[in-house]
Design goal:
The protein is globular, with a radius of gyration of 20 Å. The longest helix is centred in the C-terminal third of the chain and has 25 residues. The protein has twelve helices and ten strands. By secondary structure, the chain is α/β, with parallel strands linked by helices. The structure holds 5'-O-[(R)-(carboxyoxy)(hydroxy)phosphoryl]adenosine (KG4) and zinc ion (ZN). 5'-O-[(R)-(carboxyoxy)(hydroxy)phosphoryl]adenosine binds next to helix 5 and helix 6.
Length: 328
């Protein structure tokens, strides 16, 4: 199956060509620079950028793979969840391209896409496995028993892990996206210099909570003397990152210890974080579980993961999909 995937749910305009588990091209045009001055994604700005970028990005994915629309077996697109205006650009583009060539179209759930990044080369992972998905909009533990979907074992009750890092970065005066900025600064800091609460650690369930953490950071910064927050920003970043990662790993460990899974995978933008990857690797080697870590560019939003999820789903034939909407 040769599939063109399109992903525009947030602030990355993405198109990719996959053939089975092989990635032929994976083009990502990040809009981060356009949103940085606002300290977060502005939905209307994102939609307008997608509109300008989507055609050149699809063209680049086709030409890098050396294929034409006629060579495709199907197209795939993220239908939700995400920013509605942003999603609509991808959905309408995919519908138009598929209809023009009378090709089938597959609608994909964005989170299923993050899970399906693990089905791609190198080293495709076959279900069953336990997958922690941590991104800017979602944080959940997924039980993956087949390629068709996943079961939510636990999820955040408030903010997502990436959102906590983005908001924390803002409090520390760092740029957007906050996760990579916190990670860079944290490398120079001492995580034990400050203590932030690891929420839900005593909670017996598998749910997460991150909103109290950013409040703790805010009060810590307020309690410092003039100029001290800037001077000790690396320590603050390191301690804050450790608290976010600490909670993710604690819940992953709780789920892994239940004993139902032989393999563990990570997905979503926060899965690019080196501390999380290291701590997860230690956990898995301690418990004797296989660990699958996809490369960083398959953790953050991309269209190869959308095409990968589409591989095992039922395509909708022309013209059934023409009435499709996006779902926020
Ligand atoms: O999956 P993704 O690209 O988009 C969503 O679906 O949300 O995830 C973006 C999130 C942002 O919150 C960003 O700060 C975070 O992933 N992120 C990271 C890193 N790279 C991206 N967080 C921690 N460390 C990183 N290296
Ligand atoms: Zn995502």
């Amino acid at each position: 199956m040769r599939i063109l995937g399109i992903e525009t749910s947030c602030d990355d305009t993405c198109a990719a060509i996959t053939e089975g588990a092989r990635i032929r091209s994976n083009v990502i045009s990040s809009q981060a620079a356009a949103h940085e001055r606002y300290g977060g994604v502005v939905p209307e700005v994102a939609s307008r950028h997608h509109l300008e970028l989507v055609n050149p990005v699809v063209d680049a994915a086709l030409s890098e793979a050396g294929v034409e629309l006629d060579d495709l077996d199907a197209l795939a697109v993220t239908r939700g969840p995400g920013l509605i205006g942003a999603l609509l650009v991808g959905v309408m583009t995919a519908k138009a391209l598929a209809a023009a060539k009378r090709k089938p179209l597959v609608g994909v759930d964005h989170l299923h896409g993050h899970v399906a990044a693990n089905f791609l080369e190198p080293d495709p992972l076959e279900p069953p496995f336990l997958c922690l998905i941590a991104s800017g909009g979602h944080t959940l533990l997924a039980g993956v028993r087949d390629r068709l979907g996943f079961e939510v074992l636990g999820q955040t009750l408030d903010d997502a892990a990436g959102e906590a890092l983005d908001k924390g970065a803002r409090l520390l005066g760092l740029g957007y996206p906050g996760g990579p900025a916190v990670e860079r600064l944290a490398r120079e800091g001492d995580a034990s210099a400050f203590t932030f609460p690891v929420a839900m650690a005593q909670d017996p369930g598998l749910d997460f909570s991150f909103s109290g953490l950013k409040t703790a950071l805010l009060y810590t910064i307020r309690g410092l003397e003039e100029g001290e927050a800037e001077r000790r920003s690396a320590d603050l970043a390191a301690a804050y990152q450790a608290a976010v990662v600490g909670q993710l790993v604690a819940k992953l460990e709780r789920a892994a210890r239940a004993g139902e899974w032989d393999a563990v995978a990570l997905g979503g933008g926060v899965a690019a974080n080196q501390l999380l990857r290291r701590r997860t690797a230690e956990l898995c080697s301690g418990l004797g579980l296989r660990l699958k870590l996809v490369p960083g560019e398959l953790c953050t939003d991309n269209a190869a993961m959308i095409a990968s999820a589409a591989r095992s789903l039922e395509p909708s034939p022309y013209p059934e999909y023409l009435g499709w909407d996006a779902s926020a």
